[in-house]
Design brief:
single chain; alpha/beta; Cytidine Deaminase, domain 2; Dihydrofolate Reductase, subunit A; 11 helices; 26% helix; elongated; binds ligand AOF; binds zinc ion; 5-amino-6-(5-phosphoribosylamino)uracil reductase activity; NADP
Amino acid sequence: MTEFSKIDHQMMARAIQLAKCGEYTTSPNPNVGCVISDRQGVILGEGWHKKAGAPHAEVHALQQAGEFSKGATAYVTLEPCSHYGKTPPCADALIEAGVTRVVAAMVDPNPVVSGKGLIKLQEAGIKTEHGLLQASAEQLNRGFIKRMRTGLPWVTVKLAASLDGKTALKNGISQWITGPQARQDVQRHRARSCAILSGSGTVIADNPMLNVRYSELNLNDDVLAQKDLRQPLRVLLDGRNQLPASLNCLRSFENNLAGNVLLVNGQPSEHLFEQHVSQWQAPFIGNKLDLNKVMTKLGEMQLNNIWVEAGGKLAGALLQNKLIDELILYQAPKLIGGAGQNLFDSIPIEVMDEVIELTWTDIRQVGSDIKMTALINN
Ligand code: AOF
Ligand code: ZN
């Protein structure tokens, strides 16, 4: 195991902080940050990746450091790339600039790079190390990493429930269970996602926009000034072609106010939709959409993170298909009673061995509600 110094830790922590600046814009590319420093930890240049097609983090940092890059150390949250993608290889740029040591937090899971960037640097006589603050770096790009390794996106299911675990009234209406702070928190999660997925039952009952209202996010001016803040694709599962064209999601808005819509159904809808709506006929298993195929399709569309806002039926079906990575539950201090709808429907577990286990990763109070985050042990 490589021993990293205190300066190494400080520099990589700064690179991770920089990488986060891209969390609303880089997809399908990963969030990457880079710091170039001398041996004493004086920062000579720094940068972060803003957008697919735009320069990578290292290029910005090298540009800022200029001549001072010679003999310096580059700290990068992801292994420098070795390939000609939309931009030339960062490994070449580092070699040319005369950097003598490169520390990467993690190896790039992208098979076109994966290890080759570090080898290229070593062959040019540059000392390379990796694994510094790796867990934090992986946290930045969970969706990208999962998609590169499995072809599937990272799926987070958000549920909001009363204290007695009910997500909606009997009639399906689920708006306003949680308070304004929890709803603002949801906006932040939507903004970090490549797509927001919902089912026809929820969309008909609540008629949500499923967009990001950036003005409600209290973002700092630097982030708000970015022109490319994304509006996630809205994926609506409508196996039985129930959605009327009059729904909020299906009406058109200016591009920066709401994302495009992918309607996933069994047969083409009869409705004439606005331009932002496209349709995809998914395969079925019995009379239900094949959710594995749906997620595979979303992975092929280069979507890294899917944020699911749905009712207990769809959440239960995703759970049963082992398609959920993470669960976020907002629980409100309210009681709905026995007639309300359950968090997860249709999981017929009868023996303890089959109980689905989760691992808590965070529990906190958000306004008047409790927010619980857990990973599903699939
Ligand atoms: C880096 N630094 O800042 C990023 C990297 O199509 P391109 O040229 O943008 O390449 C995208 C791939 O490059 C991406 O999938 C990942 O493997 C790597 N991303 N690499 O060294 C960066 N964003
Ligand atoms: Zn690169």
